[in-house]
Amino acid sequence: MKTVLITGASSGIGAATAYVYAKNGYNLILTARRMNKLEEIKRDILLKHKVEISLFNVDLSLPDGAEKLYNQVDSNGLKVDVLINNAGFGINSEFRNSDIKREEQMLNLNILTLTKLTKLFVSHMLKIGGGNIINIASVAAFQSVPYLATYSASKAYVLSFSEAIAYELKKDNIFVTVVSPGATESEFADTAGFEGSDNFNNAPTSRDLADFIFKSMKKKKVSPIHGLKNNLLTFSLRLSPRKINTAIAGSMMKK
Length: 255
Hints:
Number of domains: 1
Helix content: 40-55%
Strand content: 5-15%
Mean pLDDT: 91
Radius of gyration: 18 Å
Number of helices: 9
Largest sheet: 6 strands, parallel
CATH architecture: 3-Layer(aba) Sandwich
Distance between the termini: 47 Å
């Protein structure tokens, strides 16, 4: 059986992805800060699927989080066939008012930890003969988004970085997929400060996105965008000036 490592697996997209991969016969390595949530998910999955599940309690927003996780996985002799860099969060605020320490944690998690884990597990996958890496970006990666300035910039990095290494690594039997969802039912909205926002009305569920992630990996897609509306949105952004796109995004976020 193959094994998938999922970061940010205690809720939302990460938890839903764990259920989808378990259903499809993958052993799981789950990591998050909330160990009690991971334990609940483990118990529930084991009632439904005959898989092996390892849990690691690591704060990946810290500068050494990636190394700690990799060392724990390695010291336990676990093989990782699929890495899903799902852990991440956003901050909905005017940049001048945001907490710089919180911004630093977000950038560590969304960019540095993702890059380090990718680097570490690429080396691991080269030794075992290949694998899959799935990075979670966002439709926000395709434009500048006022009030989500650092978040959208961090996801632009994830998108560009992932597409570049996907080209480099395919010759090594390592396939990189960067998934760009739009608004999704998860804890992201509350964490980012979107309570009561209309932007998440009628959003697809985390399970919808998790199914899409799995199917995109199996098809070896490089940069899939989740949902017809989001595909149309990102296409339309190419046809209008960036200044106008930014103004529209800022108006939507301000509401």
